[in-house]
Prior knowledge:
Elements: E1 5-6, E2 8-15, H1 36-43, E3 51-57, E4 65-71, H2 74-77, H3 83-92, E5 97-103, E6 118-120, E7 129-137, H4 140-148, H5 160-171, H6 180-190, E8 193-201, E9 206-210, E10 219-223, E11 226-230, H7 234-237, E12 246-248, E13 253-258, E14 261-266, E15 275-276, H8 278-283, E16 289-290, E17 293-294, H9 295-308, E18 318-322, H10 328-338, E19 346-348, H11 362-369, E20 370-372, H12 374-377, E21 381-386, H13 393-404, E22 410-415, E23 428-429, H14 439-442, H15 449-459, E24 463-466, H16 472-476, E25 483-484, H17 486-489, H18 495-508
Parallel strand pairs: 15-25, 18-21, 21-22, 22-24
Antiparallel strand pairs: 1-23, 2-5, 2-11, 3-4, 3-5, 6-7, 7-8, 8-9, 9-13, 10-11, 10-12, 13-14, 16-17, 19-20
Amino acid sequence: MAELHHECGVVAVYHWPNRDVSPLLPDDNLTSASRLVPRMLIDIQNRGQLAAGFTTFNPARNQLIDTYKEIGSVAEVFNMNRPDDYARLMKEYAGHAAIGHVRYATCGKDDRSYAQPFERHHIEKQKWFSFAFNGQLANYPELREEILSRTDFHLARENDTEILMHSICLELSGDRRPTIPEMLSVLSQKFDGAYNIVFLNAVGDMFVARDPLGIRPLCWAKEGPLFAAASESVALSNLGFASESIHSLEPGTAIVIQNGKFEIARFAASPHRAHCFFEWIYFANVASTLDDRNVYLARKALGQKLAAREHVPLDEDTIVVPVPDTAKAAAAAMAYELKLPCLEGLMRNRYVGRTFIEGRNRADKARTKYTPVPEVLRGKRVLLVEDTIVRSTTMRALIKQVRERGGAKEVHVRVACPPIVAPCFYGIDMSTVKELFAPAFLKGGPLTPEIEQLMADELDADSLKYLPVEDLAECVGKPVSSLCQACVDGRYPTSAGRRLYQIALENSRGPARAEDGRTYDAPALAGCGPG
């Protein structure tokens, strides 16, 4: 599915000094720990393709913490395809502690100044810090106004990462010397939304923190002298950490490394959880395990549920075709249950990046990214499995290609997700209400077979079936009370989310204007949230 993007991903690594060098490092020098960061970022490249960067700490150099970041993929930014340039870069930024970030953003300039980590220089080492952020502050407009109301304060960028930087600065200002958990506790009372933070200062202190709702995933591992954290477990397992060493960080807690000590500290109560279900059905790497639930097994369960709802005649001319790549696990499970072949009738061009595809519209981009295989599709009844439908432009183009270029006899769309009916305010590039495909058909009511057929007719499909929202939690393997399903049920876990949704609904009743940006932005406080 080419219509939805995650905002960001974060990583961190710390090797204790004066200890035997971890066998997981690339060589026997503990300052090579920073070289693990590009490898980890490659593993979470799915979470952001616009920019990448890292900050490293080395007390032996004059620039105690130093940040390198650029626009481009991880391999492009770190010169990983040019071994000599990569080696020089890794030598220049060598350190025993580092944090890293991959970025995708829905708005804001696509220039280096928006790339992360954000570094803040100061003569005091405790106030000289760098951090990276994954998520979105739903109360960004209010936070922005609060900061700008202070005398002589200025914000250079329209994103919540800068809001977060100034908020940290305020907590460290003057003679204040809060502990890291104390600082995070104060921030948690101000912030509404999703936030995973990785932080490093010029003393060598590090923390990684997860918001009290646990909206976005954050995993960590520690073996001997080496600690690492990442948005997804796959980045840790691929470094060589044993599976039993990899954990999900509890919401409302932080791992603090300070004065050589390792501490897991709670900074906020977490009576309720709101894990984003989209992490399991679309965003995360299929090999990752998030909050004790494997992504592959969740997607397999989605396919099994779709199979149980199948109604079209099944014969030797019926095949299951996934839209690559994230729908493959669901499609394979569906096909297995129905005793049908699961064939690759659509091929994805793996060398076309997500951030730029030449073409005038999404249909052009779909034609560039996906190629039908007539030898697989011709004369077949195709059950086309997709992970979700947002705007429907990509799906329309795919159906057209499968019919006209592929020669399929019938195209039946099966969606491993309920209809998307509301925007996301917690870190996903979600469309405005007016641009979403499903709301115009549902009109606030339940999904019925008759409505699904109207949707199918609109897409030029023979039929369309969605996963019922009631099946979602069971497939993900979590209680519905611990999931954020706002984009499919309109129930937001935070007050700012609920307020923004009302603004989105009001704005959807008027004409959409591209220059307005996201239509859920309050007119007087318009701007971009995700960093």
